[in-house]
Amino acid sequence: MEPVPEQSQHHAYPDHWEADVVLRDGGTARIRPITTDDAERLVSFYEQVSDESKYYRFFAPYPRLSDRDVHRFTHHDYVDRVGLAVTVGGEFIATVRYDRIDDRGRPASAPADEAEVAFLVQDAHQGRGVASALLEHIAAVARERGIRRFAAEVLPANNKMIKVFRDAGYTQQRSFEDGSVHLTLDLEPTAESLAVQRGREQRAEARSVQRLLAPGSVAVIGVGRTPGGVGRTVLRNVLGAGFTGRAYAVNRSFAADQATIDGVPAHRSIGEIGEPVDLAVVAVPADRVPEAVADCGEHGVQGLVVLSAGYAEWGAEGRERQRELVRQARSYGMRIIGPNAFGLINNAETVRLNASLAPEPPAPGRIGLFTQSGAIGIALLSGLYRRGAGLSTFISAGNRADISGNDFLQYWYEDPDTDVALLYLESLGNPRKFTRLARRTAAVKPVVVVKGARHSGSTPPGHAVPVSRIPDATVSALMRQAGVIRVDTVTEMVDAGLLLADQPLPAGPRVAILGNSESLGLLTYDACLAEGLRPRPPLDLTTAATPQDFRNALAEALADDGCDSVVVTAIPWVGEDGEAEAGDGEVLAAALHTAAAAGPAKPVAVVHVEIGGLAEALAAATSTVAQPRPPAQPPSAAATTRAGATTTDRDPTAPLADAETNANRNDAPGTDDSTAPDAPGTRAGRIPAYPAAERAVRALAEAVRYAQWRRQAAVPGKVPEFLDDTIDEQGAAHLIDALLGPDPDPRGRPLAHEEARELLGRYGIAVRPTLPAPDPDAAVAAADRLGYPVALKTTAPHLRHRADLGGVRLDLANETALRRAYGELTELLGKPAELQPVVQAMAPRGVDTVVRAAIDPAAGAVLSFGLAGAPSELLGDTAHRLVPATDRDAAELIRSIRAAPVLFGWRGAAPVDTAALEELLLRVSRLVDDHPEVVSVALEPVVVATQGLTVLGASVRLSPPPARTDLGPRRLPNY
Q: Poorest-confidence range of 280-294, 457-471, 858-872?
């Protein structure tokens, strides 16, 4: 039995503990604190629990709850006694409770840091992952209230509950006492518990998407009685695609005696159907949607596609209507695509569902497409249709109030029918999660993204998301770090998607170019150079070349170990009468098919100029018959079958693509089990064609960069162990607590120079001291103390780091030079009180750089690097990586700026100590990652010499740590 709780001060209702979660089967549920108003719900819930489950909970027959029990289980102080409930449709399906105890198991208050915990799950909902989700949330609540351990008594026969504790990933101890299993769980998150949590999240969210994409039955709500209209159009498309399940038409205005419409059963409500309905497509006016949702929820519908408009895109009133729609649907355990959606398509042969308004449904294929815009969705579907490409799945999410691109990344990660994921996004609801999911998915299949609304400075209507302060260039860099192929236009997305879906990944940047036009070959050559590829001189077959000549040249190029991919250029053949010869396109396509199928697995792309029938013939077999492929393997498994150059294998000044020059093509990404290219003889017809050289080369370059990232991702980077020996993490934590004080300002506070030096010093980052110089005599005294030569510089905010304005004087070798410089400085720029001059010992000559780290509310902690000075700022030449950074991230960071050659001996200069610079980046990353109170760090300038480096200036800002939703328990976002 549970101990009788002592009375303690009651706290306000913690509404931030409320959360919507996705359960193992893909349904949703609500987790919230239990209140005094829940007495009737608790009694009703308990009556539906089996006697066996009651016995496991109370260790004795316990058929009903007494009034005292009900009072005890519904009255909590939300500190020492907490109860959470899981609800579906407003009714309890599970509860969990903890009571704080002392070391003898008696009721206690803080500072006692242990609590007894007990669960009870309704039998009908056992096996859905309810208890696992509850454990994550009650553990987070306990940590917030200062509880560090849970204790639980479980009967040995209660295997399900023992498994919940055992599989959670927390450090735990077990013993057998007095006929029960005694479990103690340390609630500090571990790498294992986080991995378990994210694994469960992935499976649950993927399952929730699968329930939408592969329903056994579909009801279209709002089917008009006359032809036309949104509902009737969707029903026509569902039937036209050959949906393999059952379809129903629903309209409350149907006559009572109307049995069918368009050949399917017609009903006035979901309840009238009398059979289970898995998916409902809602196409009624917004004011009638709540009625339709309630009808669906009360009759067990699993998911909704809401095509209706009139929500957040209509302003504040519509935004509240949208929030209420999500709340209502989730209360019944349903997920939503939309509102204002265009629909979804699943081309799987076992489903064949087109629940969309698409006028030209795509053929089956291996590309998954997600878009937040219906108009862009129409354009993409049309473009793919014209180019003969096929899709596995298509989703247009509209306002994406619930289901988002993150959910579909979860699904596509393990979907064997999808080889490439294409996403058009106008907003990122959870950028940290997107980056994490994209990195994992990109390790097994390409992810191509177009980001709309990049420079508008506002969120598209209907998209309520966290506001990010980081520029679009930073977002792009972080996507690249995660392996995402970021392109600028939907045309580029289709171009890259076709190449990645239909061709093996290139082993390197070496490109063979061949064709019957010297000019087109040169254009292709120039485009390759512009994209950082390594083209070979174009092979001109002359305008007299026949399809057989193309075949022979392509076969020879594919067999050449000196090239990794081939671009074929072609212009029409012109007869003696000046007319283009008919049928040339089909003949040339057949020749290229033959050569490509017989040669080694290398990507081939075709650039053509007005050759009739060529693109269609090349795409004739593209993706129309989806080839089965093995399930995707995680990066750790793929690592055993892939190899390639890493950052240490190449010239540090070279473009990233150059690392692949000597790579073995058999080691290319795409030859592992997860993305094996088709064997010779099965690739006929799968050659993408482009109307311009630049488009083909840009798609190929993206494939080269992605292939290199994939090889490197197979062997993750690491943080060097030597850092641990020179970092005082605990000392830094104590210092931060002292600097913030017991009641920190939520706006944070900047650190003074000496405070920043002390904190950075705890992480092995030495900042060269500066001494104030309010007058010339003080400047001389400071120089005597520091030792000549010295620098004199202003620290006024408007002049800081602005040597171009004359606020810095260097190499002052003696007192005379110092006093002269002081006079010039004050005469030119103002009084000492305004300039706030300081004196600093000179550092060894080198390259001036800038290292920064900052917490962005949307993206998280970001580490940045660039050269100091106005040119770099003006050109935006700064590189970014997410924190925590690894040794590989640090190495890539300094090599990815355009001015990187300056660090490696540009124009005969001596290379600087990049190893010391990489170490500094890792130390800053560790500081920000270990202490979320450090919300910004700026080291400027950092002078990197041939041996070592010197940090001349540092600024640090502390603030109460922002919430880390990515580390908390699983929950669906509420926009």
A: 457-471
Helix (H, G, I), strand (E, B) or coil at 339: coil
Position 671 pLDDT exceeds 80: no
Enumerate helices (H) and strands (E) in the chain, giving the number of each. Answer: 30, 39
> What are the backbone dihedrals phi and psi of residue 885, each rounded to the nearest 5 degrees, phi first?
-95, 145
Total residue length of the chain: 975
Nearest alpha-carbon partner for 523 in 533, 513, 510, 511: 513
Smallest CA-to-CA distance from 136 within 182, 178, 196, 78 is with: 196
β-strand pairing of 363-371 with 420-425: parallel
Relative to beta strand 838-841, strand 790-793 is: antiparallel
Instruction: For tokens 């070349």, name the residue.
Output: 545
The beta strand positions in 733-777, using DSSP E, are 749-750, 770-772
Q: Which long-range contacts (CB under 8 A, 24 or more apart) does 752-759 make?
A: 753/954, 755/956, 756/954, 756/955, 756/956, 757/954, 759/732, 759/735, 759/927, 759/934, 759/956
Cα R_g (the chain), whole angstroms: 32
* Beta bridge partners of residue 567, listed in sequence order: 513, 605
Strands, E assignment, 426-475: 447-451
Task: Give dist(CA 17, CA 1) in Å, integer.
Answer: 26
Tokens of 940: 């400027």
pLDDT at 426: 82
C-alpha pair distances (Å), 585 with each of 329, 383, 546, 590, 619: 53, 20, 11, 9, 12
From 617, 600, 595, 596, select the one nearest 608 (Cα to Cα): 617
Alpha carbon 539 to its chain centroid, in Å, reads 42
- At 528 the three-state DSSP class reads helix
Distance CA 446, CA 441 (A): 7
Contacts of 402 (CB under 8 A, 6+ apart): 326, 329, 330, 335, 336, 337, 972
Q: Is 99 helix (H, G, I), strand (E, B) or coil?
A: strand
**Alpha-carbon separation of residue 760 from 519, 749, 764, 842 (angstroms):** 58, 16, 7, 20
CA 133 to chain centre: 22
Contact 73, 60 (CB under 8 A): no
Q: How far, rounded to the nearest angstrom, does the alpha carbon of residue 861 sit from its chain's CA centroid?
A: 14
Residue written as token pair 């609800």? 87
| CA–CA gap between residue 323 and residue 411 (Å, rounded) | 25
Q: Examine the pLDDT at 862 and tell me if it is beyond 50.
A: yes
Count of CB atoms situated within 10 Å of the CB of 583? 9
Cβ-based burial of 817 (10 A; exposed 0-12, middle 13-18, buried ≥19): middle
Query: What would the DSSP string read from start to end of 471-491?
Result: -HHHHHHHHHHTT-EEESSHH
Q: Of 34-48, 64-78, 729-743, 798-812, which range is least confident?
A: 798-812
Of 476, 319, 320, 441, which is closest to residue 370 (Cα–Cα)?
441
